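Okay, can you check this protein?
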Amino acid sequence: MSDPMFDIKAPGVDAEKLVAEIRAATEQKLAAGVYADARIARAERLNLAHLRDADEFLNFYLKCLRDAVFVDISDFPIRERRRFFGPALVALKKVIWGLLKFYTYRLWSQQNQVNGLLVTAVEGVDQKYAAKLQELERRIQTLENQLAAASKAGKGT
């Protein structure tokens, strides 16, 4: 921490040790997959540590996107916190949910199809450009090698 953003000056607080512990805990949680959530990925977008390596960040973000792409269409429990009319409200909500479930599932399944296609498209574009970059880098290396060989041949004569 040669250039700290802020300085902690409190008696008995070792800022370097505190930052090291936070980073270690974060790395452990990242390795365990705790942060593989779309909401966390959105927050991580501004994390300077991830922005240092754009390829690593893009891979992390695509993994989070893949994990969160589909809408959860599983049924859910209906609860009511109010005590007085609670059971009647729960029964009413269950009837309404039963009537609307078919339409809701159709919408959710269509949204899941669109989400899946979009993620596949984004991954396809990423792979296409990664392959194109790799080919261009290979061609540049070949040209540099040819230039170096021509330069050596020119100096040898």
Notes: The two ends are 54 Å apart (CA to CA). The chain has a mean pLDDT of 80. The helical segments are 15-32, 38-44, 48-51, 54-68, 86-156.
